[in-house]
Amino acid sequence: MMTKKLALTIDRKTKIPISEQIRRGIVEAIREGVLLPGTRLPSWIDLATQLGISRGTVKTAYDRLSDEQLVVTSRSRGTCIAEPLPAIAGCPLFPEAMPASDLYQHYLLPTGAFQMGVPANDAFPVPLFSRLLAAAMREAMSSSHHYGDPRGENELRREIAGLLTLSRGIKCHPSQIFITAGFTGALGLILHALSLGGQKAWVENPGFPPARRALELAGLTIVPVSVDAEGINTAYGIRHAADAALALVTPGQQAPLGMTLFQERRNQLLAWANRNGSWIVEDDYLGELQLNRRAAPALASQDTGGRVIHIGSFSKTITPQLRLGFAVVPQSLIDIVADIAASLSPAPNPALQMATRTFLSAGHFLRHLRKMKKIYGSRSSELLHLLQQAGHQAEINGLSVLVNLPESVSDRTLVHRAYHHGLAPSPLSGWYLPGTAARSGLLLGISGQSGASMVQACELLDNLIRK
């Protein structure tokens, strides 16, 4: 698999033989990480045709690379980069650098025990969904070849409209629903359509850092609004930034602290938006995945002024591998959002959408959801018990368990150490805006471990905390 484009150029004016130029070009591509171990190289014929040279010249270059043990050749796979690679003299191999951004360091790339934001993959019906996807792909490839509706396939949008009516209380027409590449795709689509650069936006503090960063990249000025046991403090937001053009909230289950927005504050938030002509973006974080109670009504179901934009995804309820989300927009935004979708952010693969539609319509989704609630309820209770047994202050917050740390303990330092031991907790302080008062704690995802593996991970984490 190539991480960058391989581009070999031939200089016919130089005295360096063409076969040597090819060899050097491939070696350089290996050094730069363009060609990774196991990557299949073009055949002699294909590369010779591409470069306009003889096959024998390419074969000579490949033979020299084979002599240096940089490539291997077999009848089944052809010529591939060797794995493992020997050291290349004068130029050690470096892995691809991870971006320095906190988003990648703490929220997107770290993997291991306690990783946040991933469902229990061991409980996902892989064979079933694979069959649905294969059938949808065959149907899509045998039908007329077209790009599909950039808003999303109509059958899936209708299915989601029905699901939202029954499970979230949102009465909407399929024309209001846009299928996107996950939550972030939906948020990007909406921010493009609203075009609020230079204006203010309320964000929950603490709140999901990638979403907050998206608002900053859209040119909005961030106004942190504190969160307490009743959810986002709307009175604080009105006192300090009544003129804000947008509020980004997680009213159903606050991320990361887990509380539901109280009705009085919902009323205040909606009244403020209607009075000011402001927009509310509702991140339906976890949707129906309430473990201990019935899911609270969506804020969009209580909106009578057309100011709430509802965003949901199937990343937690099905799998993040789908990278499938949706936005429900008020009637006034349908045309502009449709144009943005067609021009900049069309819906994902139609076959993927149709497989998901069948998963929903055939009843598999609701059965899977009931199963996952039981699994998550069991695993969260097990994790909480182990942590409390070890003497830690912990609480269940949605699909994570929060371990409270003393203020003297740096959760970021602790998390960096944990990464080196195969653990991937998230630092609570990183969910707060820089420069604001932050609590120290560890957010532990509950989905990945159970039984002996969870006990082992907890023991390792306990040792790191005590050190």
Can you characterise this structure?
With 467 residues, this protein is of the alpha/beta class. Helices cover 41% and strands 13% of the residues. The chain is built from 15 helices and 14 strands. The protein has helices at 18-31, 44-51, 55-67, 102-108, 126-142, 154-167, 182-194, 209-217, 234-241, 263-276, 334-343, 350-361, 364-389, 411-419, 451-466; strands at 71-74, 78-81, 177-180, 200-205, 221-228, 231-232, 246-249, 279-283, 308-313, 325-328, 394-397, 400-404, 426-427, 441-445. The chain has an eight-stranded mixed beta sheet, with helices on both faces. Strand 7, helix 10 (263-276) and strand 8 form a beta-alpha-beta unit. Helix 7 packs parallel to helix 8 (209-217) and helix 13 (364-389) packs across helix 15 (451-466).
Task: Kindly list the characteristics that best describe this protein.
467 residues, 4-stranded antiparallel β-sheet, 41% helix, alpha/beta, 15 helices, 8-stranded mixed β-sheet
Shape: globular
Span from first to last CA? 41 Å
Profile the largest sheet.
8 strands, mixed
* Number of discrete helical segments: 15
Widest sheet: strand ordering: 3-10-9-8-7-4-5-6
Structural class: alpha/beta
Query: Would you tell me the overall average pLDDT?
Result: 90
Overall strand count: 14
Q: How much beta, percentage-wise?
A: 5-15%
Task: State the order of secondary-structure elements, H for helix, E for strand.
Answer: HHHEEHHHEHEHEEHEHEEEHHHEEHEEH
Question: Roughly how much helix do the residues carry, as a percent range?
Answer: 40-55%
Low-pLDDT sequence parts: none
Please state the CA-atom Rg, rounded to the nearest Å.
26 Å
Multimerization state:
single chain
